[in-house]
């Protein structure tokens, strides 16, 4: 028995000796220095995998950077994506920064690049039904856009374009070597896409995404360069400020240990790199079957900064446009713009800024409803087809010739009526029974500057002058005839109109 135990000890010591020898062999192969994992990765078995890993000096460097001047929320956990609160309709600056190193993308040096800014859904479920969601929003908000560019405030943006079928996107050209800032306005709020629940609503987050492209050999901006995005929530005016304040107060109540789990709030939001949006111009050029319409030069409606004021609701035509009748196919772009303003479609002057009379008349009723919404679309279609409603009152007005009295006296003395004054009347159709409407229509009919008309009087018994009021207009008989003359105002500025 003792012999057997001794043999076991001998065998065990031999195995230990062999194991130690094998370990010492590994040490000799790797050298006498300290053990290093990099030496193991250098073995042939890891060579192929290692070649695919980026080296330290080959870190990916984005060519551009986009920074939105809006503070991030302090109530976001450390490893979550930042969240930024925006006010509906407020202008927010996005700085377009050239982030290239020396020698990066030399083919765009001295050239413009194109960027498309979109507001899209963050929720994957809503992304799948984006078309239906946007159609529903457009039906509830006819004539509005989800995203607009504040052109007067923007700097360095060129050739701004929108697509009527893409209410959530704008595009423009810019020079990376120059200071460029695009001011955006988001008009949709997060709760508009949330089903109503008991006890209130919780708004869905959106994304602001910027896709940038360079020009190809055929002149199209379809070669993708860079994309970045950030997560946002949009509140009614001042709502974002209140939400930011609430989050800050909640964080101040937390303990120091709990605060370590959350990100600090930053004054600006840096958009992080992402994949390009699926319906980019590249997919359109490749004839991809994507249902979303893409931007093409033929579909664009272009407008420039000098024309931005033309969309103001208070902007009025100067009376030099075509008559108050139909829009003719031969109308120029400028005449078409004046026609839109004259018929109270100033909201759409920028949208149709490149349309001539023929272009506008080619649009069908369905086209106009899709572009302008049901209410304004049908109204514009009726105006184009001269389907106007019957005026509430029609009066006939003629400007009295300056020398008519002398001519009449001469004719009476000579007994010859062939040289008598000819009175030509203009029909004035009133949609509103108001004195201001009479003044405005007189100015349009006789090419009189509206601001120069001080008062409109009606000549009464014994030649007295009675001020034309709304009540007087309401008592005008339909198809009444008036001669009118003008007299200079007492202060020497402008003149009065006297109806006889």
Keywords:
500 residues
Radius of gyration: 37 Å
Mean pLDDT: 75
Largest sheet: 8 strands, mixed
**Total of DSSP H or I helical runs spanning 4+ residues:** 15
* Total E-strand runs: 19
Counting copies of identical and different chains, the oligomeric state is single chain
Low-confidence stretches: 25-35, 44-54, 280-324
Helical proportion, percent range:
25-40%
Alpha-carbon distance between the two ends: 146 Å
- Large-scale geometry: elongated
Strand content: 15-25%
Topology, please?
Layout: H1 2-30, H2 37-41, H3 47-51, E1 64-68, E2 83-87, E3 91-98, E4 113-121, H4 124-128, H5 130-140, E5 147-149, E6 158-163, E7 166-174, E8 180-186, E9 206-214, E10 223-235, H6 239-253, H7 256-259, E11 269-270, E12 272-273, H8 281-285, E13 301-303, H9 333-342, H10 357-361, H11 365-372, H12 374-384, E14 393-399, H13 404-414, E15 426-430, H14 435-445, E16 453-459, E17 465-467, H15 470-474, E18 480-488, E19 495-499
Parallel strand pairs: 2-10, 14-18, 16-19
Antiparallel strand pairs: 1-3, 1-11, 3-8, 4-7, 4-9, 5-8, 6-7, 6-13, 9-10, 10-12, 14-15, 16-17, 18-19
Helix pairs in contact: 11-12
Notes on the structure:
The protein is an alpha+beta fold and 500 residues long. The chain is 28% helix and 23% strand. The strands form three sheets. Strands 2, 4, 6, 7, 9, 10, 12 and 13 form an eight-stranded mixed β-sheet that branches. It has a six-stranded mixed β-sheet with strand order 15-14-18-19-16-17, covered by helices on one side. The protein is elongated. The termini are far apart. Residues 25-35, 44-54 and 280-324 have low confidence and may be disordered.
